[in-house]
Amino acid sequence: MNLKEIRAMINLMNENDLAEIEIEREGMKVKLKKSSADVSEIYHQTPPTYHIDAKPPAQHPDAQSTPADSNNLEIKSPMVGTFYRAPSPEAPPFVEVGQIVEVGQVVCIVEAMKLMNEIKSEVKGKVAEVLVDNAQPVEFGQTLFSVEPL
Q: Which CATH architecture is the domain 73-149 placed in?
Protein backbone atom coordinates (compact mmCIF):
# COMPACT_ATOMS: atom_id res chain seq x y z
CA MET A 1 0.00 0.00 0.00
CA ASN A 2 1.46 3.36 -0.96
CA LEU A 3 0.98 6.95 0.12
CA LYS A 4 -1.43 7.76 -2.73
CA GLU A 5 -3.72 4.90 -1.70
CA ILE A 6 -3.72 6.03 1.94
CA ARG A 7 -4.51 9.61 0.90
CA ALA A 8 -7.34 8.29 -1.27
CA MET A 9 -8.75 6.44 1.76
CA ILE A 10 -8.58 9.64 3.83
CA ASN A 11 -10.39 11.56 1.07
CA LEU A 12 -13.01 8.80 0.91
CA MET A 13 -13.52 9.09 4.66
CA ASN A 14 -13.93 12.89 4.47
CA GLU A 15 -16.26 12.82 1.44
CA ASN A 16 -18.54 10.20 3.03
CA ASP A 17 -18.31 11.49 6.62
CA LEU A 18 -16.85 8.19 7.85
CA ALA A 19 -15.22 7.93 11.30
CA GLU A 20 -13.26 4.76 10.56
CA ILE A 21 -12.17 2.58 7.65
CA GLU A 22 -10.21 -0.68 7.60
CA ILE A 23 -8.68 -2.35 4.54
CA GLU A 24 -6.60 -5.52 4.29
CA ARG A 25 -4.57 -6.26 1.17
CA GLU A 26 -1.35 -8.10 0.30
CA GLY A 27 -0.68 -9.14 3.90
CA MET A 28 -0.98 -5.51 5.10
CA LYS A 29 -3.87 -4.32 7.22
CA VAL A 30 -4.52 -0.55 7.36
CA LYS A 31 -7.04 0.97 9.73
CA LEU A 32 -7.77 4.70 9.55
CA LYS A 33 -9.74 6.26 12.35
CA LYS A 34 -10.57 9.91 12.99
CA SER A 35 -9.43 10.94 16.43
CA SER A 36 -11.88 12.06 19.08
CA ALA A 37 -12.55 15.77 19.70
CA ASP A 38 -10.66 15.75 23.01
CA VAL A 39 -7.43 14.68 21.25
CA SER A 40 -7.88 17.41 18.62
CA GLU A 41 -8.21 20.00 21.39
CA ILE A 42 -4.78 19.01 22.68
CA TYR A 43 -3.33 20.14 19.36
CA HIS A 44 -4.92 23.58 19.50
CA GLN A 45 -8.10 22.54 17.70
CA THR A 46 -6.51 21.49 14.45
CA PRO A 47 -8.58 19.60 11.89
CA PRO A 48 -9.24 15.95 12.79
CA THR A 49 -6.21 13.71 12.79
CA TYR A 50 -6.14 10.13 11.62
CA HIS A 51 -4.68 7.19 13.45
CA ILE A 52 -3.04 4.80 11.01
CA ASP A 53 -2.84 1.32 12.46
CA ALA A 54 -0.78 -0.67 9.98
CA LYS A 55 0.04 -4.24 10.93
CA PRO A 56 2.77 -5.46 8.58
CA PRO A 57 4.38 -8.87 8.53
CA ALA A 58 6.33 -9.86 11.65
CA GLN A 59 9.66 -7.99 11.34
CA HIS A 60 10.94 -5.56 8.75
CA PRO A 61 14.50 -6.59 7.74
CA ASP A 62 15.85 -3.01 7.92
CA ALA A 63 14.28 -2.25 11.32
CA GLN A 64 16.67 -0.75 13.80
CA SER A 65 16.35 -1.66 17.45
CA THR A 66 18.50 -1.16 20.48
CA PRO A 67 17.25 -3.39 23.27
CA ALA A 68 18.58 -2.29 26.66
CA ASP A 69 18.32 -5.78 28.20
CA SER A 70 17.44 -9.12 26.62
CA ASN A 71 14.85 -9.78 29.37
CA ASN A 72 13.14 -6.44 28.77
CA LEU A 73 10.16 -5.95 26.49
CA GLU A 74 10.22 -3.34 23.74
CA ILE A 75 7.78 -0.72 22.54
CA LYS A 76 8.56 -0.13 18.86
CA SER A 77 7.54 2.51 16.38
CA PRO A 78 4.82 1.25 14.01
CA MET A 79 5.78 3.87 11.42
CA VAL A 80 8.39 6.32 10.18
CA GLY A 81 8.01 9.79 11.66
CA THR A 82 9.07 12.21 14.39
CA PHE A 83 9.00 11.04 18.01
CA TYR A 84 7.42 13.25 20.69
CA ARG A 85 7.35 12.33 24.38
CA ALA A 86 4.53 14.78 25.27
CA PRO A 87 1.26 15.97 23.69
CA SER A 88 2.59 19.56 23.47
CA PRO A 89 5.87 21.35 24.22
CA GLU A 90 4.54 22.67 27.56
CA ALA A 91 3.03 19.38 28.73
CA PRO A 92 4.83 16.72 30.78
CA PRO A 93 5.92 13.52 28.99
CA PHE A 94 3.39 10.73 28.64
CA VAL A 95 5.73 8.36 30.55
CA GLU A 96 8.98 8.62 32.53
CA VAL A 97 11.69 6.08 33.35
CA GLY A 98 10.56 4.06 36.37
CA GLN A 99 6.86 4.56 35.64
CA ILE A 100 4.55 1.55 35.30
CA VAL A 101 2.77 1.36 31.92
CA GLU A 102 -0.35 -0.65 31.17
CA VAL A 103 -1.41 -2.26 27.90
CA GLY A 104 -3.22 0.37 25.82
CA GLN A 105 -1.67 3.34 27.64
CA VAL A 106 -0.41 6.16 25.39
CA VAL A 107 3.38 6.37 25.75
CA CYS A 108 4.32 8.88 23.01
CA ILE A 109 3.33 10.44 19.70
CA VAL A 110 4.86 9.78 16.29
CA GLU A 111 4.13 12.53 13.78
CA ALA A 112 3.87 11.24 10.23
CA MET A 113 2.77 13.40 7.29
CA LYS A 114 1.61 16.19 9.65
CA LEU A 115 -0.60 13.70 11.52
CA MET A 116 -0.10 13.11 15.24
CA ASN A 117 -0.37 9.36 15.94
CA GLU A 118 -0.67 8.26 19.56
CA ILE A 119 1.48 5.20 20.22
CA LYS A 120 0.02 2.87 22.81
CA SER A 121 1.88 0.29 24.84
CA GLU A 122 1.29 -3.31 23.88
CA VAL A 123 3.09 -4.49 27.03
CA LYS A 124 2.73 -4.06 30.79
CA GLY A 125 5.75 -3.21 32.90
CA LYS A 126 8.09 -0.57 34.27
CA VAL A 127 9.77 1.82 31.80
CA ALA A 128 13.49 0.97 32.02
CA GLU A 129 14.75 3.32 29.32
CA VAL A 130 13.60 5.86 26.75
CA LEU A 131 15.74 5.08 23.70
CA VAL A 132 14.88 8.09 21.51
CA ASP A 133 15.32 11.81 22.16
CA ASN A 134 12.31 14.08 21.90
CA ALA A 135 11.64 15.50 18.40
CA GLN A 136 14.00 12.99 16.74
CA PRO A 137 13.14 11.01 13.60
CA VAL A 138 12.31 7.33 14.08
CA GLU A 139 12.16 4.42 11.67
CA PHE A 140 9.57 1.69 11.30
CA GLY A 141 10.28 -1.01 13.91
CA GLN A 142 12.76 1.12 15.88
CA THR A 143 12.65 0.47 19.61
CA LEU A 144 11.34 3.55 21.44
CA PHE A 145 11.14 2.23 25.02
CA SER A 146 12.62 -0.65 26.96
CA VAL A 147 10.16 -2.03 29.54
CA GLU A 148 10.85 -4.39 32.44
CA PRO A 149 8.02 -6.94 32.54
CA LEU A 150 5.97 -7.23 35.73
A: Beta Barrel (2.40)
pTM across the whole model: 0.55
* pLDDT tens per residue across span 72-90: 999 999 999 999 999 998 9
* CB contact at 8 A, 108 and 119: yes
Domain borders along the chain are 3-55, 73-149
